[in-house]
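sanity check this record:

:::
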Amino acid sequence: MSTATLASGWTDGSSLGYPVVLGGVLLGSIVPVVPTGAVVGAAAALATSTGRLDLALVLLLSTLGAWIGDVVTFAVCRFGGPAAVRWVSRGQHADRIEEVRAQFRAHGWLIVVVGRLLPAGRIPVLLAAGALAYPWRRLLPASLLAATLWAVAYALLGVVSGGVFDNPLVATLVATVLVLLAGGVLNLVGARRRRHPAPEPDDESAPTPCGPA
């Protein structure tokens, strides 16, 4: 099989395009076995390098898949019972979930947005939202904004790759690598911050106000 034939089959929007984007992102947002960012980046790279996929539609489907997946996960955390919550929280550290829960009380919808953008931040946030019975009227718009920003961020990596490389197969591979590298760096930064939190100010060392002379 020639490279041109392989590339043509790989970029066929009807067979490996829009259904894979929507299905891959949706599945990975419910059962985190699919690297959803890589799906979005690869599709954006194909859209840029071949034109056989529409970039706007890739963004729309990516946003929709991420949003529905987050809403389903939140519903499971809120209404699924202890067994369902344990299934969602598998692999999560209890202290991390408690930390996010405390932040959630203080910042609300902003934590929903940040949690979607940070690797390994989405599940603790949705667990906290479910445990705190966060209202749907606030969660739905916040999670939609989060999914939109997330899709745009990862699509940009694919657009950069597709704009540099004319070969769609190379552009897809480079976009996937860029997404995985970005996620790895953010994971390392987040892990380092959790291991070495910023020191809290020492009240005893704070200067005391001077009284009247």
The chain has one domain: 17-189. Confidence is low (pLDDT under 50) at residues 1-11, 196-213. Residues 71 and 145 are 13 Å apart (CA to CA). The longest helix spans residues 136-164.
